[in-house]
Amino acid sequence: MRTIRVETSAATILLTEAPEPKVRDRQTGEIAKDAVSGEALMTIGVVHIQDGESSLIKVTVPEGGVSEGLTLGAPVSLPGLVARPWESVFNGQQRHGIAFRAAAVTPAAFPAAIGATA
Predict the structure, then answer these.
(1) Angle at the Cα of 25 (from 48 to 88), degrees rounded to 5?
(2) pLDDT tens across 18-40, in order?
(3) Which three-class secondary structure state does DSSP give residue 109?
(4) 112: buried, middle or exposed (CB in 10 Å: 19+, 13-18, 0-12)?
(5) Of 15, 32, 86, 116, whose CB is crowded by the most CB atoms within 10 A?
(6) Which candidate, 7, 15, 6, 21, places its Cα nearest to that of 45?
């Protein structure tokens, strides 16, 4: 499957939803695990702001990559952020989207204000 690296150095990323376990099977409550390491996966919500545009996205991160001290509304860093297009058929209807995954989520600083002077 194609993976697209997401460049975030010029973006502001704000945490909008606290980390919670990613559920693999809603009927059984089974938690999703990384296919390689077996580590439990978490989902967070963020707003990605860049070039005057914003997008609300869900990002999957390994449980061990969730840093302490995360605060809703605060800026975060998503090292290793990638996007993967996906397609599936559910109840006879074709669905598609983009899944986002990062190696970690860590606290970050707000960028300097535009036009600010030192």
Answers:
(1) 65
(2) 999 999 888 898 999 998 899 99
(3) coil
(4) exposed
(5) 15
(6) 15
CATH number for the domain that contains residue 93: 2.40.50
Round to whole Å and give the CA distance between 65 and 88: 28
Residue 75 lies inside a defined structural domain of this protein: yes
Phi/psi of residue 116, nearest 5 degrees: -70, 145
Is 114 within the bounds of a domain? no
What is the span of the domain harbouring residue 22? 4-107
pLDDT digits (tens, 9 = 90+) for 46-83: 999 999 999 999 999 999 999 999 999 999 999 999 99
What pTM did the predictor assign? 0.86
Q: Give the number of domains in the chain.
A: 1
How does pLDDT run across 75-115, given as a tens digit for each residue? 999 999 999 999 998 888 999 999 999 999 999 987 766 55
Q: What is the 3-state secondary structure (H, E, C) of 20-43?
A: EECEEECCCCEECECCCCCCEEEE
Here the tokens at position 62 are 């390994």
